[in-house]
Design goal:
By secondary structure, chain A is of the alpha/beta class. Chain A has helices spanning 29-40, 76-88, 112-119, 156-165, 179-192, and strands at 2-8, 41-42, 45-46, 50-56, 60-65, 99-102, 105-108, 124-134, 144-149, 168-171. In chain A, a hairpin with a 2-residue loop joins strand 2 and strand 3.
């Protein structure tokens, strides 16, 4: 399984935002929606063996489970509508328990540290870092977990947590990429592994 | 210079669409907006050495010129608003001449065949094809031109034009990707060329 955690530093934690202003008043929710797109969509197909966590302001987390997802479309606006539904359901999420808002979408009051701890148990944590090893020189792990940030950089605390959990430090290329683009390149790298002729 | 042509089979050719329904009544304009994003954005940076043509229903073409672009943001909605402005300016585009609607965005009444002929003159035309050579086995060309389709497949006529112009037939990986994801992978492949240590 491929897992991704994306940290939304300004992302909404309540559903009272407008779908007409995702890049503004909704705290750059557009960037997170593009990450959902990159996690799951293929041409005429879907990556069901993927799990994505969106951490909203380190207060709560929305989990997208590829094998159970329904009603997901590629565009930002409809993805934001699914996220809004998840935020509407957060009162049903008690303690660290999750509530399912639509098929395959779950909300819980868990922060980055809790999610990272849980997701990394059966995964190889890949830290994307500009001083990392070029991805082409590495054997892709079986069950990778990638941690990415939205439009903003990691906070010092997030970077420390990630560095501590990290199994591999990797660079995807010479250019610094947006989170969703990094996810697409990571998928391609994992897809291509083992295929000398594809 | 890196060039991309993206064919929008259902894309609007008039500005009378709503920004609230890009994936519906606006003919999957969301898919084209994501291609604009993939063409130009880097983390805290911008790919100015890129030219992107969006061919709208083979009737008119919108050119995004990286070195001149202003006012472009990563989200689908604001990109669609720039496209709408271009469509509003189409009456100023006479014959094959272009009209500039916002800095770096140009509209003209040119079809795919005309654009392909012009763009390919000083470029290596790379045809992305499932039977192509794996991209990792190829030396990246200096001035590549990639031709992609939106959510739909190429028509027979488009495929024939492309096959005729094609210099290389390439496959980016074993999975079939959305156009915008293919652009991100292509950029990464070109970025990485020549960098044994990055």
């Amino acid at each position: 399984m491929r897992q991704f955690i994306v940290l939304g530093h300004d992302a909404p934690t309540t559903p009272d935002f407008s779908l007409d202003d995702l890049a503004g008043a909704a705290g750059r929710l557009d960037a997170l929606c593009r990450c959902v797109n990159s996690a799951f969509f293929l041409s005429h197909d879907f990556r069901s063996d993927v799990r994505l966590f969106l951490v909203m302001q380190d207060e709560l987390t929305i989990r997208f489970e590829g094998s159970e997802l329904r009603r997901l479309n590629p565009d930002e606006r409809s993805t934001a509508a699914l996220i809004r539904k998840a935020l509407e359901a957060k009162s049903e999420a008690i303690g660290h328990m999750e509530a399912e808002s639509t098929p395959g979408v779950f909300v819980s009051k868990r922060d980055f540290e809790t999610i990272l701890d849980e997701a990394s148990r059966r995964a190889t944590v890949v830290e994307l870092h500009e001083d990392g090893t070029p991805v082409v020189d590495l054997e892709p792990p079986e069950d990778p977990l990638f941690v990415l940030s939205d439009h903003g950089d990691f906070t010092d605390e997030e970077a420390d947590l990630l560095a501590e959990a990290s199994d591999e430090r990797v660079r995807l290329g010479p250019a610094l990429l947006h989170g969703n683009h990094a996810m697409t390149v990571a998928h391609n790298y994992l897809d291509t592994d083992g295929y000398t002729e594809y």
